Amino acid sequence: MAQGSDMEVTWEDQQNICSFGNLNNRLHEIAAKINANKKLAEDFEEAGNELMITDEEEVKYVLGECFAYLPNDTAESRLERATEELEAETSVLEEEQADIKKKMAVLKQVLYGKFGNSINLEDETQS
């Protein structure tokens, strides 16, 4: 293997490096969205608990950017549907995250195989 400055970077290597960077960016976007969805799921659960214990026949429910009064049963069913949709979205994101990690592992192996310690593909933001 050639040393750092003697190493030739081919067009294919550049494409692999760019692909790795794009996948890494997408991985961070997905992780942020999954975390936001988990927080929203907690909020939905808390709202569902509040709906169960309330004595009111109508409750305020967020529709878009405003609140509307809805019958308690309607609000519960809308909240359940929103929770199911959120869980489905999170599941799709987690699958995409796993696929991206597999692709990144393959690219890491290829790039480290060629460049060794001359290239850094580790993510310092993850602990």
TrEMBL record:
<comment type="subunit">
    <text>Heterohexamer of two PFD-alpha type and four PFD-beta type subunits.</text>
</comment>
<comment type="function">
    <text>Binds specifically to cytosolic chaperonin (c-CPN) and transfers target proteins to it. Binds to nascent polypeptide chain and promotes folding in an environment in which there are many competing pathways for nonnative proteins.</text>
</comment>
<comment type="similarity">
    <text>Belongs to the prefoldin subunit beta family.</text>
</comment>
<keyword id="KW-0175">Coiled coil</keyword>
<dbReference type="InterPro" id="IPR002777">
    <property type="entry name" value="PFD_beta-like"/>
</dbReference>
<protein>
    <recommendedName>
        <fullName>Prefoldin subunit 4</fullName>
    </recommendedName>
</protein>
<dbReference type="GO" id="GO:0005737">
    <property type="term" value="C:cytoplasm"/>
</dbReference>
<dbReference type="GO" id="GO:0016272">
    <property type="term" value="C:prefoldin complex"/>
</dbReference>
<feature type="coiled-coil region">
    <location>
        <begin position="72"/>
        <end position="103"/>
    </location>
</feature>
<dbReference type="GO" id="GO:0051082">
    <property type="term" value="F:unfolded protein binding"/>
</dbReference>
<dbReference type="InterPro" id="IPR016661">
    <property type="entry name" value="PFDN4"/>
</dbReference>
<keyword id="KW-0143">Chaperone</keyword>
<dbReference type="GO" id="GO:0006457">
    <property type="term" value="P:protein folding"/>
</dbReference>
<dbReference type="Pfam" id="PF01920">
    <property type="entry name" value="Prefoldin_2"/>
</dbReference>
